[in-house]
């Protein structure tokens, strides 16, 4: 039997990638499969939590016993998280939220016109949801966890990002052509705001999910009631 160390807790997990529309038929997306976030949601449910999964683009089936809220853009993901995380004990931001979106949404399909070069796409920043949740905790003692996909100087960039975002835990993994995105396996280091660093060897995303909850549980505020 699985230890029910999340019994009585509400956790919010985000997963998948956001899609930032350019026009009614085109968007900027990313290669997130949603697998890590879904593994986190399933693991939390098995450990007794009430789980709300805010899901960007993914092809995965809804996990049993989990409330799934589908979203499209980063701004929709932010709205959904702010609503459902108000009473959450922990929020795990595993979604690949687009850092940027097209500055302009064109309401009609952008047309190809003979002899006319296309307009460049101008990007603007999306709100940083993880930084916002970390700076203005929705409830006292809420544990906030982020993910960071880095291609180089993985640990140094991860430590800097943990400090910049202000979250409690940051799961750092190296991404590359065949690493992390879309794969069933992951290798990571979990950095904590208290300075502890927990390496997680290459293995199934389910194993990394369990390690994340193992690190969240001792950081949760005392049980309510
Ligand atoms: O800044 P970067 O995109 O590398 O940070 C990744 C982490 O921040 C992930 O946990 C992701 O869910 C979160 N994020 C966010 N809002 C954004 C961009 C990323 O919450 N606009």
From TrEMBL:
GO terms for biological process, alphabetical: coenzyme A biosynthetic process; pantothenate catabolic process
Domain DNA/pantothenate metabolism flavoprotein C-terminal: start-end pairs: 6-216
Domain of life: Bacteria
Record note on cofactor: Binds 1 FMN per subunit.
Residue ranges of the region described as Phosphopantothenate--cysteine ligase: 11-225
GO MF term list: FMN binding; metal ion binding; phosphopantothenate--cysteine ligase activity; phosphopantothenoylcysteine decarboxylase activity
GO cellular component assignments: phosphopantothenoylcysteine decarboxylase complex
Requisite cofactors: Mg(2+); FMN
Chain's role: Catalyzes two sequential steps in the biosynthesis of coenzyme A. In the first step cysteine is conjugated to 4'-phosphopantothenate to form 4-phosphopantothenoylcysteine. In the second step the latter compound is decarboxylated to form 4'-phosphopantotheine.
Name of the protein this chain belongs to: Coenzyme A biosynthesis bifunctional protein CoaBC
Gene name of the record: coaBC
Residue span relative to the full protein: 189 to 413 of 413
């Amino acid at each position: 039997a699985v230890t029910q160390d999340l019994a009585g807790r509400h956790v919010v997990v985000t997963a998948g990638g956001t899609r930032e529309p350019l026009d009614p038929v085109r968007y900027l997306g990313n290669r997130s499969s949603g697998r890590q976030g879904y593994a986190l949601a399933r693991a939390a449910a098995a450990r007794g939590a009430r789980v709300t999964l805010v899901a960007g683009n993914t092809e995965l089936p809804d996990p049993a016993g989990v409330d799934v809220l589908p979203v499209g853009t980063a701004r929709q993901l932010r709205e959904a998280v702010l609503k459902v995380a108000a009473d959450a004990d922990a929020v795990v931001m595993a979604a690949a939220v687009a850092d940027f979106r097209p500055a302009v949404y064109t309401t009609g399909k952008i047309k190809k016109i003979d002899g006319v070069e296309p307009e460049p796409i101008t990007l603007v920043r999306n709100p940083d949801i993880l930084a916002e949740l970390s700076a203005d905790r929705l409830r006292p003692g809420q544990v906030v966890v982020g993910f960071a996909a880095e291609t180089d100087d993985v640990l140094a960039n991860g430590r800097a990002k943990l400090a910049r975002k202000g979250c409690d835990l940051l799961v750092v993994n190296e991404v590359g052509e065949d690493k992390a995105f879309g794969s069933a396996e992951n290798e990571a280091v979990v950095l904590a705001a208290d300075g502890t660093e927990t390496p997680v060897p290459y293995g199934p995303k389910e194993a990394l999910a369990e390690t994340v909850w193992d690190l969240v549980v001792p950081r949760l505020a005392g049980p309510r009631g």
